Amino acid sequence: MASVTMQVNGKSVSKDVEGRTLLVDFLRNDLRLTGTHVGCDTSQCGACVVHVNGQSVKACAMFAIEADGAEVATIEGQANADGSLNVIQQAFQDHHGLQCGFCTPGMVMTAAALLKENPKPSEAEVRSYLEGNICRCTGYHNIVKAIMAASGQDVAAIAAE
Amino acid sequence: MPKDHGIGASDKRREDVRFLTGAGHYTDDIKTYGATVAVFCRSTVAHGIIKSIDTSEAEGMPGVLAIFTGADFADVGGNPAGWLINSRNGEPMKEPKRPVLAHGKVRHVGDAYAAVIAETELQARNAAEAIVAEIEELPAIVDMAAALAGDTFVHDEIGTNQCFDWGWIEDNRAATDAAIKAAPHVTTLELVNNRLVPNAMEPRCSIGNYDAGNDSYVLQTTSQNPHLTRLLISAFVMGIPENKLTVIAPDVGGGFGSKIYHYGEEALVLAAARKIGRPVKWTADRTEAFLTDAHGRDHVTKIELACEKDGTFIAFRTETMANVGAYLSNFSTATPTFLHGTLMAGNYTVPNVYVNVKAVFTNTAPVDAYRGAGRPEATYSIERVIDKAARELGIDPIAIRRKNFVKPDQYPFTSAAGLEYDSGNYDALMDRLEKHIDREGFAARRKESEAKGMLRGLGLNAYIEACGIAPSNLVGVLGSRVGLYDAATVRVNATGNLSVMVGAHSHGQGHETVFPQIVGEMLGIDPASVEIVHGDTSKIPFGMGTYGSRSLAVCGSAMVRATEKIIAKAKKIAAHMLEASADDVDFKDGQFTIKGTDKSVSFGEVALKAYIPHNFPLEDIEPGLEETAFYDPANFTYPSGAYACEVEVDPDTGKVRVDRFIAVDDFGNIMNPMIVTGQVHGGLGQGIGQALLEGARYDDDGQLLSASYMDYTMPRADDLPFYTVDHANGTPCTHNPLGVKGCGEAGAIGSPPTIVNAVVDALQSAGKNFTHIDMPLTPLRVWESMQTA
Questions:
Q1: Cβ within 8 Å, pair B201-A76
Q2: Counting Cβ atoms within 10 Å, is residue B652 exposed (0-12), middle (13-18) or buried (19+)?
Q3: Which of A68, B347, B414, B617 is the most buried (most CB within 10 A)?
Q4: Longest Cα–Cα distance in chain A
Q5: Which residues 86-145 on chain A approach chain B with CB closer than 8 angstroms?
């Protein structure tokens, strides 16, 4: 067992974990932050994306002890201080960017990383950035639209509905 | 003008808030005190005799609480097929037992033969690896034609690999044969409808709980239909009394058919929970999902279209081999038959249709209904062969379809495949499609593509499907062993808000938002005061769940009926309160008024009175305000559509890019346009995935080569375009109270032939003389086709 300490959504946490404990299992099982999901075992689906020191990371591809001393942000910490949805979350609701909701936390965390790097991404840039996030429900149309809307772009002209 | 609220408004989804903040509760999120973990030992060979299973070392390993093998379940029932199909010769289909754990033989890679229950997952995995199974490998049966011809059987006790040999409609066989023989033109096409893996993003997960004090069980599981799962476990597999078993499907991360079925893991965790007296949880990893979730499609088909020289259709004749895999999954026998053969007249007035389907056992995962279920296979065959016929006859692809469409004045129309289409207007859909696609501009767009060294193709398609399953009377005649009604209970609470318990299950469809829009409008109250309760058999009435685009058409109708009963009773209460006759009470916008007076009482006041029945005429009115309705529709609903797409094909690499995709659908009346549009988008994503990217591949030894996201190509965001979706001006369904038709599967039904038609069009523009490529149209397949054409 090894001791790990990290800031998760602004709160300091310390736990003893086995060395082989993945960050995603640490978040889900030890911290009961079950918003971060596991959709595959090959780091393809992106349902487990969190931010570690500001970078988007697949939490299934990192050991908890590798995040020792790090700042970790998960979907549970994304809403505004008053509990209302943040700009990206609100855009996903406004544009029906989710259906079953399982991939959604990873999508929101990936979108946040994209918009930090590229505040006004084109459609092609959004689609390319989502390469590591799989959604089976939406056909991606409304996810791409939501992310572009969250960046402040006018999406009203995007394909008729 | 779109409405702001109520029926027809694009209300934002209330369920989104919990999903967007990480507050959803999926099955694997449930952490129960004292919970243990189940891990399964799965066959690594496709076919073999289990000689022995040695669990002795594993039993003594740290944390191990129990080990199960097939022998432990030898005396319990099998997981049954829900639909009895008779062969052409009148014999019933072959129904070999599907056990909880493999016993005697393993029949596909991934077939579970043992399970370990331990304190932690790692302990369970370590112990599972220490179990030694001696399995004598047998030749794997993978190819369907070889399976039918060979003398090695997946199930030795039935002495054949053919489950059934079904003809639809058998009495039409001779007439169809004769019509084809005499026809001036016959177009023949052999095609494969590729095997798919549904791939809901949430892997299956089940938690068994046992309460020794009450001798009762709770199963929390990833299910689209908790009551059906309970019924199967109680009545067939485990014999647990229904009233001692609660099945709860909490938030479920997508289903697409794969979570309709009862799986052995659910029975195992219940049995294990009872044995060790603690909760037992199993969560699939993604490779387990690939190996054991019911797959979809997998048809090998020859279709013939006979027509006049002017393109008038005379007959469709189809021969199909349908893979059912190693065991019969619950709807597996209905999918290639009554969900496929009955649609083989398409949108057309063709007078002769005959379909022959041979269902074949193989050493592969079970195959069952996946989004569209049989109807994508029907549409694909019909619309591909029509496209080929149009080219052979030199007729425009839209003109040949229009020539044969059922016309608006022909409804109700009984098709040559035996279904009665209640409503539709296929020419109107095609009119709208033609407006969207700018066909006149296509030549210029093709020229632009060619200037870049690319080929451009236009693909067209029309589809009809039968969904909202369905009338129990009809499906009973067709072989269903269950009824297919649904149910809803509307409970008006004393404080005036509502709890509505429904048999449908929402796993992405947005019921929690749409159902209150309907009830709210009917009662003239704020939809926010209506809460939908679903997914828990101890709370909801006996409904059959969500699949086959049935939630709104069937369960929504039950909810409307229950709400009508609420209004009828509330009028009686209002009449009592206002000292009038119930016949004189009007109800509008949440207010009860007496005709010709200014006396009124609000819905909330009536609700409160119902629960504080002082001075009630109890001989006339019971206290309380709660009503249940079961609804069994008179027919399927028949959504239809006209789809088009344009693709660009790179002749150097064979890569296909979908440039634009237009879907025009008739879903009858629309309750929430935003959600309906989203359903179409999702179906298109899966249908385009089938056409271009996805394929479950077994090698000759029965090893699944595409058992992870490294190997099975899921559509990514950059594989797909923005879609144009149009579902305005539908023709209302004539037989349900909302006039709605199912919208969940349409996109997946209509899109594959559209894509393939477009790619064939593109390649023909380069002078390539071929008429068909099997899906998925990967760059390799397209490029190879171009070299040989």
A1: no
A2: exposed
A3: B347
A4: 56
A5: 89, 92-94, 96, 98-105, 108, 123-124, 126-128, 130-131, 133-145
Give A 35-94 residues with CB within 8 A of chain B. 35-42, 44-45, 47, 74-76, 78-79, 85, 89, 92-94
- C-alpha–C-alpha distance, residues B670 and B8, integer Å: 6
Q: Which residues pair with B192 in a beta bridge?
A: B300
Which domains does chain B possess? 27-138+202-253+259-292 (3.90.1170.50), 299-407+425-470+635-788 (3.30.365.10), 485-631 (3.30.365.10)
Which residues fall within 8 angstroms of residue A150, CB to CB, at 6 or more apart? A87, A88, A90, A91, A92, A111, A115
Cα angle A143, A145, A149 (rounded to 5 degrees) comes to: 115
Least CA distance to B224: which residue of chain A? A100
Contact call for A137 and B682, based on CB within 8 A: yes
Q: Does domain A87-150 have CATH number 3.40.1190.10?
A: no
CATH for the A2-77 domain, from 3.40.50.2000, 3.10.20.30, 1.10.275.10, 2.40.128.110: 3.10.20.30
Task: Give the residue among A144, A35, A38 at the shortest CA–CA distance from A88.
Answer: A144
Mean pLDDT, each 10-residue run in order, chain B (789 residues): 81 98 98 96 98 98 98 94 96 97 98 98 97 98 98 97 98 98 98 98 98 98 98 96 98 98 98 98 98 98 98 98 98 97 98 98 98 98 98 97 98 97 98 96 98 98 94 90 95 97 97 98 96 98 96 98 98 96 94 94 97 92 97 97 98 97 98 98 98 98 97 98 95 98 98 98 88 96 90
Measured CA to CA, the distance from residue A114 to residue A84 in angstroms comes to 21
Q: Which of residues 284-303 of B touch A (CB under 8 A)?
A: 285-287
ipTM for this model? 0.98
Contact predicate B78/B159, CB 8 Å: no
